[in-house]
Amino acid sequence: MAFWANKTVVVAFGGGIAAYKTLELIRLLREQGARVWPVLTASATQFVTPLTVQALAGHPVYQDLFTPQAADGMDHIRLAQEADLLIIAPATANRIAKLASGLADDLLSALALVRRKPIVLAPAMNSGMWQHPATQRNISQLQADGLLLVGPESGALACGEQGVGRMAEAERILEAGRRLLSPKILLGHRILLTAGPTREELDPVRYISNRSSGRMGWAIAQAALRAGAEVTLIHGAVEMAPPWGAEALAVESAQEMYEATLQQWDKWTRPGQQLSCAILTAAVADYRPASRRASKIKKELDGELSLKLTQNPDILLALGERANRLAQKNRARPLLVGFAAETAETEDAAAQLVPLAKEKLARKGCDLLLLNNVLAPGCAFGSLTNQVTLLHRSGQQEIWPLLAKEEIGERLVQTLQNRL
Ligand code: CTP
Fold it and tell me: Are the C-beta atoms of 167 and 124 separated by less than 8 Å?
């Protein structure tokens, strides 16, 4: 929320049907506290009216390079220099060609030429136009010039065809802007993350699982990506799409998560590779059914059913051992961050959680451990907030207030930067 507050964003519409999605982008920016200065090209007015854009942006629309109304006739320079970010959406093939060749024959091309600060480009066009060598050449040129490209995506196009050319959704364009403006404090670092619940199959239709939503892991992944890190995210069944730019590996069971995580750890700790950190937020089932029935379990006549469970491997413990082995060989030891979701109903019980968590941190070989009480207000599984205590291996302890998970992710990334 606070990120966009008081930031000024020039949102420039090119002339394409995807302009309706740009209206949503303006709405999102305003909702998050940004100031929006809208620019419409002449052809954009064929798709959206200046009045609609002005009403949503809460600011008059800039349309012309030469306006007697502008105090000094220098709108293009002021817009380019004063805004934090310029977003061009939709960027048509024509607009892209103009930008790539440095033309300055209308307000938008002139302001893009003046600008030395970040520009996000969201192309939208027919797939044939997108794939044409001329467009691809222009796009390569713009990327080399430092513009950030978001999309286009594949799917149904307005022209009736299927293919690449759809403009990225408003949320993704917003995220691209945020990535561009965020300080790159973890640039060059690779982070391995586990997130979400695991599912332990009983039979073809049932499984044992838990209430983890994956939100904490998602928030950390997002914060790390914004900070410039490479993120490998191994996750159980969750409802959210993986954060943009993460290498995501979907698994179901604890055993699958164990195998995938160890494989990724081994891959990224090979000589010549560098894993900076592993963060294990997943709520891994400690037990699985001792055997999976091939067919659906039927109701027993006596009204009871006993299940035999067997213990799953502990991923964090296994990584702790591997990390120690690396250290013994004088190799860089990635930072290991664990979580401990505990339940304490009373204050007395809550006071006992810290010594337990310290023991867990030492036993599993962690450098950092985030402890939370799932029964505390605002800390339930699946909630948008959490209150954690950060324990360092050195014994240092930080009690963080109740925060949005997004903010916990940001604070953790800050802590990692200090430690790495
Ligand atoms: N964890 C893991 N693999 C498991 C179980 C847990 O990697 N099979 C990780 C979790 O992702 C978390 C940490 O270990 O980072 C703590 O999990 P928790 O369930 O609190 O610890 P347990 O060792 O299962 O201890 P407890 O007896 O309290 O359940």
Answer: yes
CA distance 148 to 314: 40
Do 238 and 374 lie in one domain? The reply is yes
* Confidence at 369, pLDDT banded by 50, 70, 90: very high
Alpha carbon nearest to ligand 1 atom 21, residue: 340
Q: Which of 133, 83, 131, 128 is nearest to 108 (CA)?
A: 83
Pairing of the two strands 368-373 and 388-392: antiparallel
* % of the chain surpassing 70 pLDDT: 98
pTM above 0.85, yes or no: yes
Q: Which of 315, 321, 322, 388 to mutate to test the pocket of ligand 1 (most atoms within 8 A of CB)?
A: 315
Looking at the structure, tell me whether residues 241 and 322 fall in a common domain. yes
* Beta carbons of 284 and 257 less than 8 angstroms apart: yes
Shared domain check, 230 and 378: yes
Higher pLDDT, 278 or 159: 278
Cβ < 6 Å from ligand 1: which residues? 194, 254, 280, 282, 284, 286, 312, 314-316, 338-341
Contacts of 85 (CB under 8 A, 6+ apart): 7, 8, 9, 10, 117, 118, 119, 120, 177, 180, 181
Our mutation pick for probing the ligand 1 site, out of 339, 366, 371, counting the most ligand atoms within 8 A of Cβ, is 339
Tell how far the Cα of 212 is from the centroid of ligand 1, in angstroms: 13
Q: Which whole-number Å values give the CA distances from 318 to 94, 197, 256, 313, 365, in the listed order? A: 55, 19, 14, 8, 9
Mean pLDDT of 206-211: 95
Assess whether 277 carries a catalytic annotation. Answer: no
Output the pLDDT for position 254: 98
Asked if residue 115 and residue 46 are part of one domain, the reply reads yes
- Nearest one of 156, 147, 101, 102 to 124, comparing CA atoms: 156
